[in-house]
Amino acid sequence: MALEQVTLTSADGTVLEGEYRAARHDGQDVEIAACVLCHPHPQYGGSMHSLVIGELFRELPAHGVTCLRFNFRGVEGSGGSWDEGRGERADVHAALDALAARVPAERALVLAGWSFGADMALSTDDPRVRAWLAIAPPLYYAADPDAVGRDPRPKHLVLAERDQVRAPDDLRAATSGWSATTVEVVPGADHFCVGRTDRVVTAARDFVARLVESET
């Protein structure tokens, strides 16, 4: 599956780097959905090449999910600098713009993220998003995540059993009032999911498959 370098422009003119991989299998277009992938905290070494994002970007296209990953402002080759989650939310919209421009209008768009990236995804209420996938979201950086929580569109939280940033039980309590929200705990995983990325990929793949099936 060929990888395409893409350039995104955030609302304030900040230029971001990204990568796009279309869903293909055995040379055939098998796209059933498309997904923006948001990476972990820029101030703690997070980038679009971080472990979980890298595995999702590598694996999901073979299962029918076209993926776009990008670096938030100030990370690697992206312009700008850390903006404490404010400009980063605009960066997510820029990534959605770029992905929506490359897939059919009827295609299901999923907004996914890991850690800080999950918080940025859950801060983004965009009408083009059909569902949210949040992997180990601390909910410390999200801007009013309950706004997305109240939204009737599907949300799936993939939590790490041994998360040292925020415990699954705490996250369950924090999101207990959310609508259309499912929770899955990855046994044995900590916040960084080392040795458990295959479980995360399976959770993501299955969630997208359920989403697509529910819309047919």
Report the biggest beta sheet as strand number plus sense, adding barrel if it closes.
8 strands, mixed
The total of helices stands at 6
Order of neighbouring strands in the sheet with most strands: 1-2-6-5-7-8-9-10
Radius of gyration: 16 Å
| Tally of discrete structural domains | 1
Going by CATH, the homologous superfamily would be: Alpha/Beta hydrolase fold, catalytic domain
Q: What would CATH call the class?
A: Alpha Beta
Provide the low-confidence segments as ranges: none
Order of helices and strands: EEEEEHEHEHEHEHEH
Number of strands: 10
In the CATH hierarchy, the architecture is 3-Layer(aba) Sandwich
Approximately what portion of the residues adopt beta-strand conformation?
25-35%
Measured between the Cα atoms of the first and last residue, the distance is: 26 Å
Task: State the helicity in percent bands.
Answer: 25-40%
| Secondary-structure-derived class | alpha/beta
What would the average pLDDT be, to the nearest integer? 96
